[in-house]
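Deliverable D2.4 — example input (structure tokens):
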């Protein structure tokens, strides 16, 4: 039976323990980046800088994230510090990247450039597999994705 989502808002918040655990993983990535900087080879220095940037931005994104809200016509991502970012479902593109124990859902506004969408990613580890499935079902219901294509299968 297909689950229908009524005209209310659906909120997703991170579990604090899982938020801390995934932040530790990104902190380890930053430490690994620092290690690469001290190797001294140009490629390892570039790789180290990349690891540090990605790790720090991910940590800030995780720590300042407040909630993800699915409304009737749009998606809102809210932070404790940075405010809110809203994208209408008609303009929403999504992709997913799966990793061991976790993954990331990327939300992008078709009308804007990619750099402005940098913090619209959403880590799935702190909400668990059930949260991922529910987000997937909402996106199917809103006709943003078709179903199991491009990594959305679970």
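Example output (designed residues):
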């Amino acid at each position: 039976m297909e689950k229908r989502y009524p005209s209310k808002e659906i909120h997703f918040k991170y579990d604090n323990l899982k938020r801390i655990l995934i932040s530790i993983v990104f902190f380890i990535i930053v430490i690994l980046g620092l290690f690469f900087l001290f190797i001294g080879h140009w490629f390892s220095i570039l790789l180290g800088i990349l690891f540090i940037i990605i790790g720090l931005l991910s940590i800030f994104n995780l720590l300042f994230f407040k909630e993800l809200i699915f409304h009737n016509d749009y998606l809102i991502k809210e932070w404790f510090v940075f405010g809110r970012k809203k994208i209408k479902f008609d303009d929403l593109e999504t992709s997913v990247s799966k990793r061991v124990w976790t993954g990331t859902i990327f939300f992008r506004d078709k009308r804007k450039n990619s750099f402005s969408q940098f913090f619209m990613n959403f880590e799935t580890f702190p909400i668990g597999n059930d949260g991922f499935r529910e987000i997937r079902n909402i996106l199917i219901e809103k006709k943003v994705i078709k179903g199991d294509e491009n990594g959305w299968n679970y």
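The first helix runs from residue 16 to 39.
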